[in-house]
Write a structure and sequence with these properties.
Blueprint: H1 10-19, H2 23-27, H3 31-51, H4 58-61, H5 63-93
Helix pairs in contact: 1-5, 3-5
């Protein structure tokens, strides 16, 4: 039984995840997970911003949020790749060989 809808290609999900934290998850239909990553990225960005001094670089002042964002990228890609390969294997094995 092949699934009807083709999932979004993993590279598109990867691009969305790189552009905005949680966007790849939302595009895949996992809004709770995506908004969770976005929320904690923002929360940890604000926490590290307020606990560091202006002497630190921008990267240093936003390190907490960037860390969560960095974790969300491979997570979104992994889920997208698994879904895509599962869909692809279902649809290629159902085809009669000629």
């Amino acid at each position: 039984m092949a699934s009807k809808r083709r999932p979004i290609h993993p590279y598109i999900i990867l691009t969305l995840a790189i552009v905005l934290p949680g966007a790849g998850h939302v595009a895949m239909g996992l809004p709770e997970r995506g908004f969770g990553f976005a929320f904690f990225s923002l929360l940890l960005t604000l926490a590290t911003w307020h606990t560091t001094t202006p002497d630190h670089s921008f990267i240093g002042r936003t390190a907490g949020g960037l860390f969560v964002w960095a974790l969300s990228i491979p997570d979104a890609y992994r889920i997208a790749r698994i879904r895509y390969e599962a869909w692809r294997s279902q649809n290629t094995t159902d085809q009669p060989s000629t």
